[in-house]
Amino acid sequence: MVQECETAESDFRALIEFRGNSAALHSIKTTTRRAGISALLQEAWSMALAWQERARSRHALSLMDEAALKDIGLSRSLAETEINKPFWRR
User: Fold this and answer.
1) Number of domains comprising the chain
2) CB under 8 Å to 28, separation ≥6 — which residues?
3) Which range of residues forms the domain containing residue 70?
């Protein structure tokens, strides 16, 4: 928490020093925008990986026989319900 306060204070001082300096302000805005784009790309990548895992899991479920489904506590009808979901749906 102390480090966060020191960082915030440092950022505030830097902002005061940059006041009136449009090039520096542009640099701050660009950095913030890039961080936002980076976060957005990370979120999209995580979502794509989750979708891939769901598709893989549902495919594996579709290959299981009655005995294997019974071992994991699923009926064929519950398995079919899960198998028939699109990959983007939880």
Assistant:
1) 1
2) 15, 18
3) 2-83
